[in-house]
Amino acid sequence: MSVSSVVTAGTRPPTSAGPARVEWLGVAALPSAVPVARYFTRALLGSWDAWEAHGWECQQVISELVSNALDATASDPDLATRAIAMILLRFQLSAEHLIIEVRDDSPASPQVGRAALLDEGGRGLLLAATLASSWGTYALTDGKVVWAAWELAPETP
Ligand SMILES: Nc1ncnc2c1ncn2[C@@H]1O[C@H](COP(=O)(O)OP(=O)(O)OP(=O)(O)O)[C@@H](O)[C@H]1O
Ligand SMILES: [Mg+2]
Fold this sequence. Notes:
Strand content: 25-35%
Oligomer: single chain
Number of domains: 1
Bound molecules: adenosine-5'-triphosphate, magnesium ion
Strand order of the largest sheet: 1-5-6-4-3-2
């Protein structure tokens, strides 16, 4: 993250007392970002042995958040210059939480919709909010992060 990219406002994800595993995924802001993020989430949570707890919900939420990030990101890829906007994802798993964060370059804030019965869109964030234990967003000087978190049940001895 560049020096200019500092948090300016918003809600941060929960913190954990113990250590957390961390993994990153960077995807170009292209339609392929959404299935790539979905597949990566499946593979990562499987390798972390974290699929059973909230893996499916996490995969759906990633799908929604990356779709939104893509919609919000102006992207005009250029083969010669390799100019392309990026969407960055961070995954964290501790004993207490599974947290996903999706960063895009748009300064606009997500707005939970009030989709009417016949509206074709406007439900993604509401679904994500329902599937996660908590969610939020924090602004950066050159974009923002939308995150979702799941509280994990303590392991029984
Ligand atoms: N990452 C984002 N950056 C900027 N605006 C966002 C972002 N995510 C969501 N929004 C805003 O919040 C609105 C609601 O998002 P939501 O995902 O609920 O609905 P949608 O994307 O419009 O439709 P659907 O997800 O049902 O296909 C969006 O229309 C958009 O205006
Ligand atoms: Mg959406």
